[in-house]
Write a structure and sequence with these properties.
The structure holds 2 protein chains of 2 kinds. Chain A is built from 12 helices and 12 strands. In chain A, strand 8 and strand 9 form a beta hairpin. In chain A, the strands form 2 sheets. In chain A, strands 1, 2, 3, 4, 7, 8, 9, 10, 11 and 12 form a 10-stranded mixed β-sheet that branches. Chain A has a two-stranded antiparallel sheet with strand order 5-6. Chain A is of the alpha/beta class. In chain A, helix 10 packs across helix 12. Chain B is an alpha+beta fold. Chain B is built from 9 helices and 7 strands, in the order H-H-H-H-E-E-H-H-E-H-H-E-E-H-E-E. Chain B is flat. Chain B starts with a helix and ends in an 8-residue tail after the last strand. Classes of the chains: A alpha/beta, B alpha+beta. At the A-B interface, helix 5, helix 9, strand 11 and helix 11 of A face helix 8 and strand 7 of B. Strand 11 of chain A pairs parallel with strand 7 of chain B.
């Protein structure tokens, strides 16, 4: 080997070491479909625990997200004093299954909370989520006390420049965003991005300052969820987000997951139209989130795995 | 000036000052500042049936105030009118009456708040929502909001297309179907507009009956395609 070749090899190795931490290789990975962890996984059919297991496998396994000894937070939608069948909250079976997987991966603790709209104790109990989490070995945290929220600056936000965020999120090693896909009176469709309103104290301010821009702004937070798992097992097709009298719930048996909350919501909006059988259209916070660089609203460049069980 | 005149003058001065102080204390502006609209009729808990009956039976023991999980039941004050001092009533700035909750009727020891089965409670109207379009975020700022409709448990409040001459497309504004309204106050509590809410609930002196819709239906639908 020539001296020149050796120098070339050293230079190339050095360049590789420099590029790798900046994510250039992640970009390359996205172009090769079917190889490596998926960017977005979509599942239809099966039972919630099985759907979650297959989804996590496609994303590179739970160990990619949960390290031994980690403090984990799971943030479902528990906003309403609704039964699971009414479709206002995340499916308790899915939440329980995720808590179990986190503990199996060696998590030191798994805490679950939501800043609910209806009375929090009724929501935790009647949603079935409290029982499912306890049975799986996790803990429910209250989120009805302003003292538990800390001011976090959002320098990239356009309308929302800061928000008070629950300390459980800020003190966690990793957190999972586990919303339910459903219709919404103000946001058209709600899934991953909108679910972040439940980690914030003052939701009213977000409505007042322009809901869609504020949702996108909030998603620029310095500590985004490691993974967004959108429950579309039961879909409240119209008159959401609260379930109850006069409303229709469609048993659709879907699940979507991605580390990218804009992409998973773009996918969720399209699936929502499939379930309804009519176009509700894409919620504008999806486009606004992409404009802020939170994620990709164009699904064409992504490595998507579609599974039917 | 005689001693009797000086005494009379002192008496008049002291009582004028007292009258002025009283007038200031009870002035409507102070009440509005405390988060209450003086003219707005008060809402009493479901199961109390009417203000007259409630006043006869309630001993103001505050058991319902302590037990109310939603913290909407609060002691009234004399500024709300004669007889309201310590009388529990619904304060929608503090909370709203949870649709499926019947706790106050279960704890009331005097029969002022009668116990109600959940299904029966759903039919009780304690007040009615009133909407002021000019105050609403959608009309004033041309931004979607829907916080009120989001919280409404009965579909009395829904978002309908809003088309003002200079408004961008896709806006939706609250629309009330009064016969479905139970007066729970969820809409008023959720409304982000301050100091006066765009949507407020006015209590009824005589409770009425609301229409209720069918319980939620679950239908299975074979979804063939993800749509992307």
């Amino acid at each position: 080997m020539q001296r020149r070749d050796i120098l070339k090899a050293i230079a190339l190795g050095g360049a590789t070491a420099v590029i790798r931490p900046f994510g250039a290789f992640d970009l390359l990975a996205q172009t090769t479909s079917g190889e490596g962890p998926a960017d977005l996984v979509a599942v239809l059919g099966g039972d919630p625990a099985d759907m979650l297991a297959q989804t996590l496998a496609e994303l590179g396994g739970i160990d990619r997200f949960v390290k031994p000894g980690a403090k984990v937070v799971v943030k479902p939608n528990i906003g309403w004093d609704n039964t699971p069948e009414e479709g206002g909250n995340t499916n308790p079976e899915l939440v329980g299954a995720l808590v179990r997987r986190c503990l199996e991966a060696g998590a030191a603790q798994v805490a679950v909370f939501d800043h609910t709209c209806d009375n929090w104790q009724s929501c935790y109990k009647n949603s079935g989520i409290e029982a499912a989490v306890r049975a799986a070995g996790g803990a429910m945290l209250p989120a009805n006390d302003k003292g538990d929220y800390r001011e976090v600056s959002l320098p990239r936000g356009k309308s929302l420049k800061s928000a008070r965020i629950h300390r459980a999120i800020l003190e966690s090693d990793v957190w999972f965003n586990v919303p339910v896909l459903k219709s919404h009176s103000g946001a058209v469709v709600t899934a991953a991005m909108k679910n972040l309103m439940g980690i914030v104290w003052d939701r009213g301010a977000m409505h007042w300052r322009g809901l869609h821009q504020c949702i996108a702004d909030l998603c620029t937070l310095p500590k985004p969820p490691a993974l967004n798992i959108v429950d579309a097992w039961r879909v409240l097709a119209a008159h959401g987000p609260r379930g109850g009298r006069g409303k229709q719930v469609i048993l659709a048996k879907g699940l979507f997951a991605s580390p990218d909350m804009v992409a998973v919501d773009a996918a969720g909006c399209r699936f929502f139209d499939q379930v309804r059988g009519s176009a509700a259209g894409e919620a504008s916070y999806v486009r606004l989130g992409a404009a802020l660089g939170v994620g990709a609203d164009d699904l064409t460049g992504l490595n998507i795995r579609r599974l039917k069980i | 000036m005689s001693e009797a005149d000086a005494e009379r003058r002192r008496f008049l001065r002291a009582h004028t000052a007292l009258a002025a102080l009283t007038a200031l204390t009870f002035a409507p502006s102070r009440r509005a500042g405390a988060g209450e609209t003086p003219e707005r009729p008060v809402s009493t808990p479901p199961g109390s049936r009417s203000h007259a009956r409630y006043f006869r039976r309630c001993v103001a023991c505050q058991l319902c105030v302590v037990a109310c999980p939603s913290r909407v039941l609060r002691a009234g004050d004399s500024l709300m009118g004669p007889g309201w001092f310590a009388q529990p009533r619904m304060d929608f700035r503090a909370g709203y009456c949870n649709y499926d909750c019947t706790v106050c009727g279960e704890v009331c020891p005097s029969g002022a708040i009668l116990p109600l089965a959940v299904e029966d409670k759903h039919r009780v109207r304690t007040g009615l929502a009133h909407f002021t379009e000019s105050l609403c975020v959608v009309a004033a700022k041309h931004e979607n909001c829907g916080a009120c409709a989001e919280h409404c448990p009965t579909l009395a409040l829904q978002m309908a297309p809003y088309a003002a001459p200079d408004a961008p497309p896709g806006l939706r504004i609250p629309e009330i179907t009064p016969d479905l309204c139970v007066g729970c106050g969820a809409c008023e509590h959720a409304c982000p507009v301050t100091p006066e809410r765009a949507i407020v609930v006015e209590g009824l002196a005589e409770h009425a009956t609301a229409r209720i819709l069918e319980k939620a239906r679950e239908v299975e639908r074979q979804v063939e395609d993800f749509g992307f």
